[in-house]
Amino acid sequence: MKAAILGCGSGGLTMAVDLGLRGFQVKLYDFPEFAANLRAVEERGYVEAHGEIEGRVEPEVVDSIAEAVEDVDIIFLTIRAYGAERFIGEASRYMEPGQIILNWASYFSALRCYRLFREGAPEDAILAEGAILPYFAKPLEPGVMWVYAVKQHLWASAMPSRDNPQLMRVLREFFPNCQPMRDVLETSLTNPNLQPHVPPTLLNVGAWERCGGDLDFYGSLITPSVAAVMEAVDRERIAVGAALGLRLMPKPEVLKLEYGRYGVRGESMYEVYQTLKSHRGWRPRMTLKEFAQRTAFGEDLLYGYVPISSLGDQLGVETPTMDSLVNLASIVVGRDFWSEGVTVRELGLEGLSAGEMIRYVAEGGLN
To answer: Which fold has domain 192-363?
Structure first.
């Protein structure tokens, strides 16, 4: 079977090695302004991984999205949240009948891009999202990845979820450990990145600025008090999910499913992160501004906290902790995250009741 991987940062190149070592044919593509990694792969003739995945493969590097999606069984997006519209909009124009495109960075991407996708893709093509990337990996050098962890459990859903049976028939060929979720509301609200980036960064901003991000992120920044804020974020996420008829797993339970093989245990947020050995030792080594743009604020706030708060407003669920963190981050970084972030309007859910939202993500419409 064949897969296209669009977006070739650490996650995409790690996936190329993983799938290639397991016998799949892989095509790689990225937009020219982000293609430094692909040029390194072309120069080497291979992409290489070490750590939890060991080996090298020789994927096919292509020069256009049209070439990438041609004659593949599934298209995987391994991108930052802010790239979803561009990639899905471009790829949908070249997709073949029955093809699947799945974005592993959920962040409400399927809802954000659903109308755009339907405008360009064949009628029976499928749009889907996973809750999170299958790997925790960082580059050692261009074209060489260090894989800290491979996740044991993955979750995905199609938009609309009536396409889940067809999605899972293909997706499980590539990732047998992936389970279907009720819908894309559940995948985005299960996104495990919603808790661990923003509170530790904001509540340790002084230490971060003094050392330029050269610190053990998970080992030193998540203290009991910081973990308490992460717990509050998690409770608000679960409450918004409950208003949509979802029984979301608390984050500690999600971590134990994902990383159980790495010794994760405990009941509280602080306990599980203290035992997350796979993540110990990772040091961002970037300025606060860089980290804010790439990860914590540029992703988790704009495409996580702001849309969840917007959903909460429409459903009558308060999200005071998330709101406070968005306000504080706006002051620290000097950006208005509320005006930049995604709301129910961009998700196509404005004015809908909880029941209508559930119906929309199940059927793709309300008619």
So the answer is: N-(1-d-carboxylethyl)-l-norvaline Dehydrogenase; domain 2 (1.10.1040)
Q: CA 8, 201, 187 angle in degrees (round to 5)?
A: 55
Please state at what angle helix 306-315 crosses helix 224-243, rounded to 10 degrees. Answer: 50
- In this predicted structure, the answer to whether residue 245 has a pLDDT above a threshold of 80 is yes
- Phi, psi values for residue 273, rounded to 5°: -75, -25
Q: Which two tokens stand for residue 282?
A: 């990772």
Among 3.65.10.10, 2.60.40.1120, 3.40.50.2300, 3.40.50.720, name the CATH number for the domain at 2-190. Answer: 3.40.50.720
Residues paired with residue 6 on neighbouring β-strands, in sequence order:
29, 77
Per-residue pLDDT reduced to its tens digit, 300-338: 999 999 999 999 999 999 999 999 999 999 999 999 999
Task: Determine the average pLDDT of the residues in 67-90.
Answer: 97
Q: Per DSSP, what are the bridge partners of residue 157?
A: 129
Distance CA 190, CA 176 (A): 19
Question: Burial, 141: exposed, middle or buried (Cβ in 10 Å; 0-12, 13-18, 19+)?
Answer: exposed
Please tell me the predicted confidence (pLDDT) of residue 296.
Answer: 80
Is residue 163 over pLDDT 80? yes
* Residue 365: burial class (beta carbons within 10 Å; 0-12, 13-18, 19+): exposed
pLDDT, average across residues 263-276: 93
Contact 302, 85 (CB under 8 A): no
